[in-house]
């Protein structure tokens, strides 16, 4: 999916939800959509400053917070980075990320079996899951063949 088609889909989602998709939010969205893999907020800020010299850290963090709440991006807590979600039309889907410690590649996967197992264990402990991001670290297929 191209960055432009992702942007059009995001605009549609925002319009449907009544969420305000400002110019800055769109710019940050496109920076992420045109990028392969995860990126830190300050790297995004440096790229945004090329488009808007007045951009500050608060600008990028507010935009990332909005994009995350809309389900357009995922925050990878363990490496303090963000990655575009290419199937954000599926609201509140469970997120499972495979993170390569060698090259930094991040792959988003979805396993309904894993989600079911986790929810079953949570239910057994009287715990209600409201949001799920599972991060697994290791080596990707490319790094394993080197």
TrEMBL record:
Cofactor(s) recorded for this entry are: Mn(2+); Fe(2+); Zn(2+)
Question: What keywords appear on the UniProt entry?
Answer: Cytoplasm, DNA-binding, Iron, Metal-binding, Repressor, Transcription, Transcription regulation, Zinc
The molecular function GO annotations come to: DNA-binding transcription factor activity; transcription cis-regulatory region binding; zinc ion binding
Q: What's an example Gene Ontology biological process for this entry?
A: regulation of secondary metabolite biosynthetic process
One Pfam entry for this protein is FUR
Q: Tell me yes or no: is Electron transport among this UniProt entry's keywords.
A: no
Q: How is the cofactor bound, in the record's words?
A: Binds 1 Mn(2+) or Fe(2+) ion per subunit.
Q: Which residues bind Zn(2+)?
A: 100, 103, 140, 143
Where primarily located?
A: cytoplasm
* Family the UniProt entry places it in: Belongs to the Fur family.
Any idea what this protein is called?
A: Ferric uptake regulation protein
Say which species the protein is native to. Colwellia demingiae
